[in-house]
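Internal tracking record. Fields below are filled automatically when a chain is submitted to the structure queue. Please do not edit lines marked as system-generated. If the sequence contains nonstandard residues, flag them in the REMARKS field before resubmitting.
Queue: standard
Priority: normal
Entity type: single polypeptide chain
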Amino acid sequence: MRGDVTRLESLPISAACSLILDLGCFHGIDAERREDYAAGVTHFAAPGALYLLYCFEPMIRHGRTMGATRYDIEQLFADGFRLEKVERGKNPDGMASAWYWLRKIERV
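SYSTEM-GENERATED OUTPUT FOLLOWS
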């Protein structure tokens, strides 16, 4: 399936997802479009879903700003997810990065 991750509602996703994996997509989205991405992920995540997000720390690469901080992630996904765990590290090129474990909040 191919599509614009900032317009997930336009894709033929037929059911809520219990696992969502982002391996390097989010950190490349322009800051002004990240809210659309977060809204789509929140919409399609089933209650209790696990969202695994791999993201670079903020940097300038190829002349553009990319990456995010823990605070950025927590604020952007606060309406739908609870941050459970963060594991910081570096990618093979030595760039600072982190894995974020977020859990979809179950509303009753």
